[in-house]
Specification:
The structure is a single chain. The protein folds into two domains: 1-88; 93-163, no CATH class. The protein is built from seven helices and three strands, in the order E-E-E-H-H-H-H-H-H-H. It has helices at residues 44-52, 55-84, 94-102, 109-124, 126-130, 134-142, 146-161; strands at 9-14, 21-28, 31-38. A three-stranded antiparallel β-sheet has the order 1-2-3. Helix 4 packs parallel to helix 7 (146-161) and helix 6 (134-142) packs antiparallel against helix 7.
Length: 163
Amino acid sequence: MSFPFVGNVVNARYSDPELNTVALTYSDGDKVISYSMTTEADDPRWVALQEDIGIEEVDRMTLEFNESHRQEFRLAFEDYASRNELVWVAEMDIYNLVAKLLVFDPDDESHTEALFKIKLAIFDSEVVKTSGNTELKTEVRRSETPLEALAAFAKIQAEDETP
């Protein structure tokens, strides 16, 4: 089955924290068309996209998109902080961090947003970027809790350290 986006992808990125949907744009002559699809293994569009550009490219484009938005936020915040003379002191309380990881609630939007950020951080790590193990990367992508994501990351790290 052929899809019009194959060979014409301009951008493809995950559009939800669970990585279940991809928003993509493709070129159709002089038009750029937006398209959305699921990442279900049996969705022929997803299979075609994987064959066309690969999961790693979707990961890369997602990270670039999110980093661009983070950078815009940073610049706006720095501007606001400089105009309002705000001083921030960040202290990490490891106990509270671990406690939050242990009580993950998938129905709490702030928790699912935190899970998405954890997955982004994992995919930002050099060991994951250089890993060729797409099964473990998919395990991170599909993880439903922070602990599952970190466990999959640990597997990638262990594989990287294996001689």
